[in-house]
What does this fold into?
Amino acid sequence: MLMSVDNISKSYHAFPNPPAKVLHDVSIDIAAGEAIGLVGESGSGKSTIAKCMLALIKPEVGAISYDGIDVVHAKGEDLRRFRREVQMVFQDPYGSLNPRMTVQELIGEGLLIHKLEATAAARRARVAEMMEMVGLNPNDMDRYTRSFSGGQRQRIAIARALVIRPRILVCDEPVAALDVSVQAQVINLLQDMQKKLNLAIVFVAHDLAVVRHLCERIVVLHKGRVVEQGTREEIFGNPRQEYTQSLLAAVPVPDPVVGRARRAARHLEPAN
Amino acid sequence: MPDQSTLTPVRPPLVTVDKLTVDMPLGRSGASVRIVDGVDFIVGVGERVALVGESGSGKSLTARALMRLDRLAKLSGRVDFDGTDLLKLSDRDMGKLRGSSIAMVFQDPMSFLDPLMTIGDQVAETLRIRGIGKVEARKRALSVLDELGVDRAAERLDSYPHEFSGGMRQRVVLAMALVGEPRLLIADEPTTALDVRVQDQVLDLLDDVSTRRGLAVLFITHDLGVVAGFAERVMVMYSGRIVEDGEVGSVFARPSHPYTQGLIKAVPRIDQDLATLYAIPGAPPPPLARPSGCPFHPRCDQRFDRCDRELPALLPIGRTRVACHLHDGKGD
Amino acid sequence: MTAPAIVQPATARRKEGFTPFEAFVFALVVALLAIAIVGPFFAPDSVYNSDIANSLMPPSAANWFGTDDQGRDVFWRLIVGAQTTLLSAFLVVTLYSLIGVTIATVAAAGPRWLDEGLMRITDIGLALPGMIVALGFAAAMGASLRSAVIAMAITGWPITARMLRGIMRQTMEQPFVAGAQVLGVSKWRLMTKHVLPNSLDVLIVKWAGDIGTTVLVLASLSFIGVGAQPPSAEWGATIAAARGYVSTAWWTVVAPGAAVAITSIAFGLLGDIIQVRRDPSLRGN
It folds into this structure.
């Protein structure tokens, strides 16, 4: 396993409210090169797990290990390697890029701080190469992100994360804020990058259709617990838990025939 | 008035929108930008129509224009509701119409609820404003909350909004909209902020209410899945115009406009595997930088020489209307 | 799905022109700065020399604002004094802004105990009135413009520190800051490259307004004899020196008084205008 999340629990303390436990004994394994989806409704704890995986917050109980590194207590060289090899892309394409940095500074920052390219010229070359790879025009590298659309910003965020060649990319709702016609571009890009770079992708999302499309393995979360995990076929073809079934049944299908049939079927059942 | 360019609906028309434009001012400079650019459509009595579009398409402003919600917006054209032109009404008369004949619900129920007022008082308020007595208003508020599946409604009339979950709040907002027995409900992304299971319940609820009451619903959304399950007719907006308008079954089965085709192919599905998604290149244009000719032509994979010069009109083919040079009968 | 639409009006706003009032305030500030910077080079020698024969002459074509008790031209002394006054005010505000920014940054970046400690010190600083400290300094180091500047610099920073620390904490909640942490940037780079540049906007507003207040306070200190001393042309000192002649030669007091008032109001308005232009929700008032 490339990363193992082992029985972690986490509470949030917001005085004067009593501590709220948001994760209960969550365990998830991530293999190199696989795309794994964390799905759940709001309050399921999926974003909290992502933050723990990125060492942005620490679980109170349990361990997270990445390729021999104890993530929760990592320091010095271990932490530096972890930071280089585990990257993320956020939901909000507007708040996730520093507005006072040019595209080149944003994408090149990882190369600079991890000293992966010695000279500014070499960094620019790598940035240009990466921009082309994610479908951006390298001529735009000295512009600020203000005038870029949501989809382009998300490409910049992906380039920024991938230019230092991480082995895991954690994506927290990366397409939820994008227009429908642009979502597909970013989903295809992520899929493409995963194959090209043998990248493990942890895809945190509420949209089950997107997760089904992108992920080979799925973890279903509810109120901070893992309800069910399995392969795409297992979860979507034969969900065992009632919660998973109800979640799948509620996803709208962009097909009036299917949609009406499902609605009619529900109306026949006695309402809860 | 609508000519052959507007389809005759199966039902008698309730709202007839004719050449509606919405201009929004840009700062204090006096300049403005046209967000909605000549839109016409009909919503029939009791009909459920979805208005679909992306950011900058003008879908929300179109809906808000029917309610005249944006004070700064400059509206032109005609919005005929049951024989009166809403754009010509005085502010006072328009105010009377809101809530009683036309009601609206929004994406974020919490911003719509007063945290310091009980649910019962808020639902009853619409009626109280119209001079209905306290006891009667409370009784009707209770019956609407009951109708919308708020359990133990009688006990919860005196609760405050923070004691309710997101889905329940959206029901309360719906109750506020429906207590005045409107004939048209405008719903602006009412389920976008909700979890899928709650969304599903709210949609079922809207479905039931609209059928039971013969209530027309204009449903604004970006989610094609929601459209397919809920609406009878769908209008697709792009860059301030309607590009396709037709019965949901036929639009999803045989979309005519390349944009509609692209949108349907771009959405991943829960019920089947797709190898790769079709990605429409580029992004929707901002209203200040609309391309010449057909606004979709830079992103269109079927464009030809006329597309960047001539703006296609919204013309009927069969029971659908399409604004595309591929279908305007002039050939290519 | 509405986020991109928000960007559009923002860019449009930036292109918008100034209102006549805004243009007037900007012109006034620029004129004041120009006078302070280049004015003294054109001043005649008589600014520094007594000419008792011509003392307390009323305004005339030769002496636009009249002459003072030493027979010096009031108009030119105001211009020479503008440099001293504005330069001192700039110095004071710049110094305490630097102290404030440093303390805010350390507090926002540091561990909880350091943050708490620095903020308690800031609270104490907020409670100390600048005037009293300046009086203390004058007693210890002798009354001079330098004492006044130092006293104001070391009493002025707490407001900046407190305000900026709050803003920096907010900026640190932004997703791009978490993104930089995930990328592995050092604490120093995180604060200087990501957090600070995105928190300083408000300080620029405050900085302009503060110049105005500082001009006024410095003049007051000089007037009560703690700041600049005669024969300095600093405005407060000038008013102090002329206060005996209010009834006989009003121009010797009114001219520097008006200079202080106009300058502090102009910079105060400049601060307000920048603030309103930054925050569209305040517009139209």
Observations:
- Confidence is low (pLDDT under 50) at residues 1-5 of chain B.
- The CA atoms of residues 233 and 248 of chain B lie 5 Å apart.
